[in-house]
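To the wet lab folks,

You asked to see what we're planning to order before we commit. Fair enough. Below is the target structure as tokens, and below that is the sequence we designed to fit it. If anything looks off to you, flag it before the synthesis order goes out.
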């Protein structure tokens, strides 16, 4: 999103840090777990905790995110866990739960 780059320049951060900071600002119990193999990316990701987004920044990202259309539309019954079992709350066929 170009918007993340614009906000990142204003905040002296990277677009990835803005995305993570937005998630952290949404709810205090959200714990994003970005994956990386590089120390520089790990440092970039942890730096997101120090990014302060303004209320206007948050509104801009929320508005843009609400306009994103998913590529596909799956119903809950069409989803499966990584082991192929139905989502939680339904009976697991493999006995892993």
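Sequence we intend to order:
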């Amino acid at each position: 999103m170009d918007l993340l780059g614009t906000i990142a320049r204003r905040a002296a951060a990277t677009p990835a840090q803005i995305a993570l900071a937005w998630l952290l600002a949404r709810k205090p119990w959200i714990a994003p777990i970005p994956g990386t193999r590089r120390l520089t990316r790990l440092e970039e990701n942890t730096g997101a905790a120090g990014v302060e987004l303004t209320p206007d920044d948050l509104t801009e990202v929320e508005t843009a995110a609400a306009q994103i259309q998913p590529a596909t539309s799956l119903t809950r019954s069409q989803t499966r866990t990584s082991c192929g079992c139905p989502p939680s709350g339904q009976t697991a066929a493999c006995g892993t739960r």
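Structural context that might help your review: The radius of gyration is 17 Å. The first helix runs from residue 2 to 11.

Thanks,
Computational group
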